[in-house]
Amino acid sequence: MKIATFNVNGVKTRLAHLLRWLEKEQPDVACLQELKALDEGFPAETLREAGYGALWKGQRSWNGVAILARGSQPVEIRRVLPGDEADDQSRYLEAAVDGLVVGCLYLPNGNPQPGPKFAYKLAWFERLIAHAAALADSEHPVLLCGDYNVVPTDFDIYNPRSWRKDALLQPESRACWERLLAQGWTDAIRHLHPDEPVYTFWDYFRQHWQRNAGLRIDHLLLNRRLAPALRAAGVDTWVRGEEKASDHAPTWVELELSRLSKPRRNRRA
Protein backbone atom coordinates (compact mmCIF):
# COMPACT_ATOMS: atom_id res chain seq x y z
CA MET A 1 0.00 0.00 0.00
CA LYS A 2 1.42 3.37 -1.02
CA ILE A 3 0.39 6.53 0.85
CA ALA A 4 1.62 9.96 -0.19
CA THR A 5 1.40 13.55 0.92
CA PHE A 6 1.57 16.44 -1.54
CA ASN A 7 1.27 20.20 -1.04
CA VAL A 8 -0.17 21.00 -4.47
CA ASN A 9 0.04 24.80 -4.02
CA GLY A 10 -3.28 25.35 -5.81
CA VAL A 11 -5.36 22.36 -6.87
CA LYS A 12 -7.06 24.14 -9.77
CA THR A 13 -3.88 25.79 -11.05
CA ARG A 14 -1.91 22.55 -10.93
CA LEU A 15 -4.62 20.00 -11.61
CA ALA A 16 -2.77 18.69 -14.67
CA HIS A 17 0.35 18.10 -12.54
CA LEU A 18 -1.72 16.27 -9.94
CA LEU A 19 -3.39 14.05 -12.54
CA ARG A 20 -0.08 13.15 -14.20
CA TRP A 21 1.39 12.22 -10.85
CA LEU A 22 -1.62 10.10 -9.86
CA GLU A 23 -1.57 8.28 -13.19
CA LYS A 24 2.17 7.57 -13.08
CA GLU A 25 2.71 6.75 -9.40
CA GLN A 26 -0.79 5.46 -8.49
CA PRO A 27 -0.70 6.02 -4.73
CA ASP A 28 -3.46 4.17 -2.89
CA VAL A 29 -4.00 7.21 -0.66
CA ALA A 30 -2.98 10.80 -1.41
CA CYS A 31 -3.19 13.59 1.16
CA LEU A 32 -3.22 17.06 -0.39
CA GLN A 33 -2.56 20.45 1.19
CA GLU A 34 -2.85 24.09 0.18
CA LEU A 35 -5.81 23.55 -2.14
CA LYS A 36 -6.44 27.31 -2.40
CA ALA A 37 -10.02 26.62 -3.47
CA LEU A 38 -13.50 26.75 -2.00
CA ASP A 39 -15.36 23.47 -1.47
CA GLU A 40 -17.39 23.96 -4.63
CA GLY A 41 -14.21 24.59 -6.62
CA PHE A 42 -12.60 21.27 -5.72
CA PRO A 43 -12.27 19.03 -8.84
CA ALA A 44 -14.00 16.02 -7.30
CA GLU A 45 -15.56 14.77 -10.55
CA THR A 46 -12.29 14.96 -12.45
CA LEU A 47 -10.52 13.02 -9.71
CA ARG A 48 -13.34 10.47 -9.64
CA GLU A 49 -12.85 9.93 -13.37
CA ALA A 50 -9.15 9.36 -12.60
CA GLY A 51 -10.14 6.62 -10.17
CA TYR A 52 -10.04 8.45 -6.84
CA GLY A 53 -12.72 9.05 -4.26
CA ALA A 54 -12.16 12.18 -2.20
CA LEU A 55 -12.87 14.06 0.99
CA TRP A 56 -11.92 17.72 1.10
CA LYS A 57 -12.18 20.90 3.10
CA GLY A 58 -11.50 24.03 1.10
CA GLN A 59 -10.92 27.68 1.83
CA ARG A 60 -10.77 30.75 -0.37
CA SER A 61 -7.30 31.75 -1.62
CA TRP A 62 -5.23 29.65 0.82
CA ASN A 63 -5.13 26.55 3.03
CA GLY A 64 -7.42 23.61 2.28
CA VAL A 65 -6.79 19.86 2.69
CA ALA A 66 -8.03 16.70 0.96
CA ILE A 67 -7.71 12.92 1.21
CA LEU A 68 -7.93 10.84 -1.97
CA ALA A 69 -8.35 7.05 -2.10
CA ARG A 70 -7.79 4.96 -5.22
CA GLY A 71 -10.84 2.91 -6.08
CA SER A 72 -12.69 3.71 -2.86
CA GLN A 73 -14.25 6.49 -0.82
CA PRO A 74 -12.51 7.73 2.35
CA VAL A 75 -14.80 7.64 5.39
CA GLU A 76 -14.70 10.92 7.28
CA ILE A 77 -13.72 10.85 10.96
CA ARG A 78 -13.23 14.56 11.64
CA ARG A 79 -12.85 17.81 9.74
CA VAL A 80 -11.41 19.98 12.50
CA LEU A 81 -8.41 19.67 14.79
CA PRO A 82 -9.87 19.74 18.32
CA GLY A 83 -9.04 22.44 20.83
CA ASP A 84 -10.21 25.75 19.35
CA GLU A 85 -13.79 26.14 18.17
CA ALA A 86 -13.02 29.66 16.91
CA ASP A 87 -10.34 28.46 14.47
CA ASP A 88 -11.87 28.58 10.98
CA GLN A 89 -8.74 27.78 8.94
CA SER A 90 -8.96 24.61 6.83
CA ARG A 91 -5.89 22.70 7.98
CA TYR A 92 -6.91 19.24 9.19
CA LEU A 93 -8.88 16.29 7.85
CA GLU A 94 -9.02 12.75 9.23
CA ALA A 95 -10.49 9.67 7.57
CA ALA A 96 -10.60 5.88 7.59
CA VAL A 97 -9.23 4.29 4.42
CA ASP A 98 -8.89 0.53 3.94
CA GLY A 99 -8.45 -0.14 7.64
CA LEU A 100 -6.10 2.77 8.32
CA VAL A 101 -6.74 6.05 10.09
CA VAL A 102 -5.19 8.81 7.98
CA GLY A 103 -4.74 12.36 9.22
CA CYS A 104 -3.93 15.02 6.62
CA LEU A 105 -2.58 18.27 8.01
CA TYR A 106 -1.27 21.63 6.87
CA LEU A 107 0.52 23.12 9.86
CA PRO A 108 0.76 26.93 9.87
CA ASN A 109 3.89 28.48 8.39
CA GLY A 110 4.32 30.99 11.22
CA ASN A 111 6.17 33.74 9.38
CA PRO A 112 6.99 36.44 10.15
CA GLN A 113 8.23 35.62 13.61
CA PRO A 114 7.94 36.72 16.29
CA GLY A 115 4.36 37.84 15.96
CA PRO A 116 0.75 36.64 15.87
CA LYS A 117 1.31 34.21 13.00
CA PHE A 118 4.08 32.46 14.90
CA ALA A 119 1.95 32.37 18.05
CA TYR A 120 -0.84 30.77 16.01
CA LYS A 121 1.61 28.20 14.64
CA LEU A 122 2.71 27.15 18.11
CA ALA A 123 -0.85 27.08 19.45
CA TRP A 124 -1.94 24.91 16.51
CA PHE A 125 1.04 22.63 17.11
CA GLU A 126 0.01 22.24 20.76
CA ARG A 127 -3.47 21.18 19.65
CA LEU A 128 -1.94 18.66 17.25
CA ILE A 129 0.26 17.21 19.99
CA ALA A 130 -2.75 16.84 22.28
CA HIS A 131 -4.86 15.13 19.61
CA ALA A 132 -2.00 12.93 18.40
CA ALA A 133 -1.37 11.48 21.86
CA ALA A 134 -4.42 9.21 21.67
CA LEU A 135 -3.68 8.30 18.04
CA ALA A 136 -0.11 7.30 18.91
CA ASP A 137 -1.37 4.72 21.41
CA SER A 138 -4.35 3.59 19.34
CA GLU A 139 -4.93 -0.08 18.53
CA HIS A 140 -5.73 1.12 15.02
CA PRO A 141 -2.91 1.74 12.52
CA VAL A 142 -2.58 5.53 12.14
CA LEU A 143 -0.64 7.72 9.73
CA LEU A 144 -0.31 11.48 10.27
CA CYS A 145 1.03 13.16 7.16
CA GLY A 146 1.23 16.53 5.51
CA ASP A 147 3.13 19.78 5.29
CA TYR A 148 4.33 20.30 8.86
CA ASN A 149 6.24 23.50 8.05
CA VAL A 150 9.04 22.33 10.35
CA VAL A 151 12.64 21.54 9.39
CA PRO A 152 13.41 19.02 12.17
CA THR A 153 17.22 19.44 12.20
CA ASP A 154 19.95 21.26 10.33
CA PHE A 155 20.56 18.02 8.41
CA ASP A 156 17.11 18.51 6.83
CA ILE A 157 18.04 21.73 5.00
CA TYR A 158 20.67 22.50 2.38
CA ASN A 159 22.14 25.39 4.39
CA PRO A 160 20.54 26.60 7.62
CA ARG A 161 22.54 29.80 7.83
CA SER A 162 20.23 31.99 5.74
CA TRP A 163 17.09 30.47 7.33
CA ARG A 164 17.92 30.98 11.00
CA LYS A 165 15.21 33.60 11.51
CA ASP A 166 12.56 31.62 9.63
CA ALA A 167 9.68 30.13 11.63
CA LEU A 168 10.42 26.68 10.17
CA LEU A 169 13.74 26.46 12.05
CA GLN A 170 12.91 28.14 15.33
CA PRO A 171 13.77 26.25 18.53
CA GLU A 172 10.12 26.41 19.61
CA SER A 173 8.96 24.78 16.35
CA ARG A 174 11.58 22.05 16.61
CA ALA A 175 10.78 21.44 20.27
CA CYS A 176 7.13 20.83 19.37
CA TRP A 177 8.22 18.39 16.68
CA GLU A 178 10.39 16.48 19.16
CA ARG A 179 7.55 16.31 21.68
CA LEU A 180 5.28 14.92 18.97
CA LEU A 181 7.79 12.22 18.01
CA ALA A 182 8.32 11.37 21.68
CA GLN A 183 4.75 10.07 21.80
CA GLY A 184 5.99 7.09 19.81
CA TRP A 185 5.65 8.21 16.19
CA THR A 186 8.06 6.98 13.51
CA ASP A 187 9.33 9.58 11.04
CA ALA A 188 9.28 7.33 7.95
CA ILE A 189 11.79 9.16 5.77
CA ARG A 190 14.40 9.64 8.46
CA HIS A 191 13.87 6.14 9.85
CA LEU A 192 14.72 4.53 6.50
CA HIS A 193 17.24 7.15 5.32
CA PRO A 194 19.10 8.18 8.48
CA ASP A 195 22.26 9.38 6.74
CA GLU A 196 20.90 10.72 3.45
CA PRO A 197 19.91 14.33 2.76
CA VAL A 198 16.27 14.18 1.67
CA TYR A 199 14.34 17.28 0.61
CA THR A 200 10.63 17.76 -0.14
CA PHE A 201 10.47 21.52 -0.78
CA TRP A 202 12.48 23.88 -2.98
CA ASP A 203 11.31 27.48 -3.11
CA TYR A 204 11.10 29.49 -6.32
CA PHE A 205 14.01 31.81 -5.56
CA ARG A 206 17.74 31.78 -6.40
CA GLN A 207 17.46 28.59 -8.49
CA HIS A 208 16.98 26.46 -5.40
CA TRP A 209 15.44 23.63 -7.39
CA GLN A 210 18.20 23.65 -9.99
CA ARG A 211 20.84 23.60 -7.23
CA ASN A 212 18.96 21.04 -5.10
CA ALA A 213 18.90 23.59 -2.30
CA GLY A 214 15.92 22.11 -0.51
CA LEU A 215 14.23 21.59 2.85
CA ARG A 216 12.46 18.60 4.36
CA ILE A 217 9.13 19.86 5.71
CA ASP A 218 6.64 17.26 4.40
CA HIS A 219 6.50 14.33 6.79
CA LEU A 220 4.73 11.00 7.24
CA LEU A 221 4.48 9.75 10.82
CA LEU A 222 3.42 6.19 11.72
CA ASN A 223 2.05 5.23 15.11
CA ARG A 224 3.33 2.22 17.04
CA ARG A 225 0.68 -0.05 15.59
CA LEU A 226 1.54 0.83 11.99
CA ALA A 227 5.33 1.22 12.18
CA PRO A 228 6.13 -2.50 11.67
CA ALA A 229 4.48 -2.30 8.23
CA LEU A 230 6.92 0.32 6.92
CA ARG A 231 8.75 -1.04 3.88
CA ALA A 232 9.93 1.97 1.84
CA ALA A 233 9.76 5.77 1.78
CA GLY A 234 10.82 8.42 -0.69
CA VAL A 235 10.09 11.57 -2.66
CA ASP A 236 8.77 11.83 -6.23
CA THR A 237 11.17 14.62 -7.13
CA TRP A 238 10.33 14.50 -10.84
CA VAL A 239 7.07 16.32 -10.06
CA ARG A 240 8.99 19.37 -8.80
CA GLY A 241 10.81 19.49 -12.14
CA GLU A 242 7.62 19.94 -14.15
CA GLU A 243 6.94 23.32 -15.76
CA LYS A 244 5.19 25.71 -13.33
CA ALA A 245 5.24 23.02 -10.65
CA SER A 246 4.37 23.28 -6.98
CA ASP A 247 7.35 24.14 -4.81
CA HIS A 248 6.78 20.81 -3.01
CA ALA A 249 7.24 17.26 -4.29
CA PRO A 250 5.03 14.32 -3.26
CA THR A 251 6.48 12.34 -0.36
CA TRP A 252 5.39 8.75 0.22
CA VAL A 253 5.60 5.52 2.17
CA GLU A 254 5.01 1.95 1.10
CA LEU A 255 3.41 -0.30 3.71
CA GLU A 256 3.16 -4.07 3.93
CA LEU A 257 0.07 -4.41 6.08
CA SER A 258 0.43 -8.19 6.29
CA ARG A 259 3.30 -7.54 8.72
CA LEU A 260 0.84 -6.23 11.31
CA SER A 261 -0.35 -8.53 14.05
CA LYS A 262 -4.04 -8.71 14.79
CA PRO A 263 -5.22 -6.13 17.33
CA ARG A 264 -5.80 -7.32 20.85
CA ARG A 265 -9.42 -8.00 21.69
CA ASN A 266 -11.16 -6.43 24.65
CA ARG A 267 -12.09 -9.40 26.81
CA ARG A 268 -14.95 -7.50 28.40
CA ALA A 269 -16.44 -7.03 24.95
Describe the structure.
Keywords: Hydrolase, Magnesium, Manganese, Metal-binding. The record marks 149 as: Transition state stabilizer. This protein is an alpha+beta fold. The chain has helices at 15-25, 44-49, 116-136, 171-181, 188-192; strands spanning 2-7, 29-33, 52-57, 65-70, 75-78, 92-97, 100-106, 142-147, 186-187, 218-222, 230-235, 251-255. The longest helix has 21 residues, at 116-136. Helix 3 (116-136) packs parallel to helix 4 (171-181). Strands 3-4-2-1-12-11 form a six-stranded mixed β-sheet. Strands 5-6-7-8-10-9 form a six-stranded mixed β-sheet. The chain is globular. It contains five helices and twelve strands. It has one domain (2-258): Endonuclease/exonuclease/phosphatase (Deoxyribonuclease I, Chain A).
Q: Descriptors for this entry?
A:
269 residues; alpha+beta; Deoxyribonuclease I, Chain A; six-stranded mixed β-sheet; 5 helices; globular
Show the helix and strand layout.
Elements: E1 2-7, H1 15-25, E2 29-33, H2 44-49, E3 52-57, E4 65-70, E5 75-78, E6 92-97, E7 100-106, H3 116-136, E8 142-147, H4 171-181, E9 186-187, H5 188-192, E10 218-222, E11 230-235, E12 251-255
Helix pairs in contact: 3-4
Family: Belongs to the DNA repair enzymes AP/ExoA family.
Pfam families: Exo_endo_phos
Cofactor: Mg(2+); Mn(2+)
